[in-house]
Amino acid sequence: MSLIAKLLKRNTSAARIAGFALSNFLGILIVSVAVMVYTDTRDIWSDDDSFMHTDYMVLNKRVTSANTLGVGSSSEFSAAEKADLEAQPWVRRVGEFTSSPFRVYASISSGGRGMETALFFESVPDGFVDVAAADWKFDPASGIVPVIIPKEYLTLYNFGFAGSAGLPQLSESLISGIPLSLYMRSEDGTRSLKMEGRIAGFSKRLNTVLVPQAFMDYASERLAPGEKAGASRLIVDVSSPGDVAIADYLKEKSLETAGDKSGSSAAFLLRVAMGIVMAIGIVITLLSVFVLMLSISLLLEKNRVVIHRLLMLGAPLARVRAPYAVMIATACCFSWAGVIISLFLLRSQYAGALEALGAATGGLIWGLATATLLTMAVLAVNMLAVRRKVKGAWRLRMQ
Amino acid sequence: MKHTEEIKLTGLLPSVFAREEMPSSQVWRSEVTFRRGGRYLVESASGGGKSSLASFIMGARRDYEGKILFDGVDTAAFSIADWQRLRRDTLAYLPQDLALFPDLSAIDNIRLKAEISGEADMERALHWMERLGIDGRRDFPAGKLSVGQQQRVALIRTLCQPFDFILLDEPVSHLDEANNRIAAAIVEEEARRQGAAVIVFSVGNPLLIENPEKLNL
After folding, report:
1. Interface of A with B (CB under 8 A)
2. Is residue A168 predicted with pLDDT exceeding 80?
3. Which phi and psi angles does A135 have, rounded to 5°?
4. In this predicted structure, what is the pLDDT of residue B135?
5. pLDDT interval class at A320 (50, 70, 90)
6. DSSP-assigned beta bridge partners for residue A195
7. What backbone phi and psi angles, to 5 degrees, belong to B92?
8. Is residue B122 within 8 Å of residue B116, measured between CB atoms?
């Protein structure tokens, strides 16, 4: 060790530096873990749907035994009920679900195997569906009908049906590529239509089989001219989804929201918890930075005379800063390495479970990036403090 | 390496003196030039500002009016890096408080300077310690030495670097005449070897260099 370094390292406290490294480690670890876990599990909790804004709500009346027996109030919404809903302050706009007044059969055939099922269609006004306009249009000339089906259907098939029936599991991309043969027939069986369907997407929030309004109008006109079914479901664009007034209103009118996952409140709680955890981590990190800056300031203040004398002898500033810089960098390196190792260890604990859930897996990168960025920030702040302090010792302080 | 040939002071005055009636001075508020190779003795009464003058020339303080020019260049424009370079290869300075590191041994104090300036001859330094009679104290912590011994260590340390000007602030105030003469001879030899100027500051017991140009503060 050079004599300069020996002089400058006088008064350093290993305990203080270790204390910084430890608190810095804890702070950065907490923030990075929060970021990592949050990004990893975001997919599980979020009910973000590319086809439907989170501000949309699907409403229907509660089905009672009276409905089954055909007595009592209708499950359809009357014009007055719709108007009442539209008048609520939290409603931006209301759209009606149109159900198909004809029968629908869909079949898939691939590799010699075929499947057929009776189906139904519903449509909502185009403004409520967030699919690129090119993918969500119906052109009678081409005869291809884009369809959005609930993601649950695929899940039911893959994990419920396929296993028990000895059928292969299907991925989203695979099934999107398979053409769907659609056969539609009027109630009285006199008219029919054949079309080709294509799955435009899977929705987590929409529990219906959705087709473009244009197709619904086209098919109804041909298969059930003049029939107009009332809307039994409404899609509502809500200005503040969390509003208590909404829940109260729905309760009062015995309405149900479809596709409303209890997950959304869990997701909200998760987000709040993550926020709190991250805030705590950031506070600890800030405190650790403060601890280091304080001990560096104290050290440089104690060594101020030594530093001034060295500078009077012509020692370059960089050489005087070097021992402190090395000290800070070493402490930061230790805490950074600790965080990185901990992140890898922690993630290996839950990576398996994560894969089973099919959640996103980018969390580790984000955790590592957070740890590295925070470490660099801590390093920079402290290096600047050293730079300022050493420069401050250059001029003789007027006593 | 480029040498600095002259240090010129023009209208220099410590800020604290600005509002005082100053007795006549050959330095303050006038024009003085120190030339490389010259010998100068700056004398003053206590409080005359000699240590301040040394600090101004060394760039350690800026609380003055007027200008200090190094070969015509105003030092006010110098950066910290400029000053650090000048302190390594142009200006050697022995402050009145010696500025030794009391925990380091006498020899380490000198070695430290060699470490910073990068081209000091430790052989010669040891020889100087012998001549000044402190070679027996080389491994003692500087803080445990007598003031006179410390002055000799600090003087040797000051000589251990390349310089064009050596500023010695009361270098022998605690030395007897015999040691004063040895110190003067060593300073003289080294300054001659390097072709440098010697500027001694004193209130009454100056280093006995030969025929210095005297300046009263």
Report:
1. 2-4, 7, 10, 306, 309-317, 319, 391, 394-396, 398
2. no
3. -85, -15
4. 92
5. very high
6. A182
7. -105, 140
8. no
Q: Of B145, B198, B152, B199, which is closest to residue B173 (Cα–Cα)?
A: B152
SS3 label, residue A119: strand
Nearest-angstrom CA–CA distance, A297 and A320: 14
The answer to whether B51 faces chain A, any CB pair under 8 Å, is no
CATH of domain B6-216: 3.40.50.300
The domain ranges of chain A are 3-46+265-392, 56-260
Q: How far apart are CA A59 and CA A96, in angstroms?
A: 10
Supply the pLDDT for residue A258: 67
* pLDDT tens track for B138-167: 999 999 999 999 999 999 999 999 999 999
Picking from B58, B109, B116, B150 by the largest number of A CB atoms within 10 A of its own CB, the best residue to mutate is: B116
Four-point Cα dihedral A303, A307, A308, A314, nearest 10? 170
pTM: predicted TM-score of the whole model, two decimal places: 0.67
The domain ranges of chain B are: 6-216
Q: What percent of chain A has pLDDT over 70?
A: 85
Considering only residues A351 and A262, tell me which one the structure prediction assigns the higher pLDDT.
Answer: A351
- Taking 50 as the threshold, does the pLDDT of residue A342 lie above it? yes
Q: Where are the alpha helices (DSSP H) in A197-316?
A: 213-223, 244-252, 263-302, 304-312
Among candidate residues B209, B205, B160, B203, the one with its CA nearest the CA of residue B183:
B209
Residue A192: how many other CB atoms lie within 10 Å: 14
B91 vs B41: CA distance, rounded Å: 17
Q: Whole-angstrom Cα distance, residue B100 to residue B122?
A: 17
| CB contact B174 to A (< 8 Å) | no
* Tokens found for residue A80: 């007055």
Answer whether B48's CB lies under 8 Å from B217's CB: yes
CA atoms of A37 and A42, how far apart (whole Å): 8
* Chain B contact set for A314 (CB, 8 A): 84-89, 116-117, 161
Cα–Cα distance measured from residue A277 to residue B151, given in angstroms and rounded to the nearest whole number: 61
- Check A312 against B88: CB less than 8 A apart: no
Using CA atoms, how far apart are residues A10 and B171, in angstroms rounded to an integer?
29
The complex's ipTM works out to 0.93
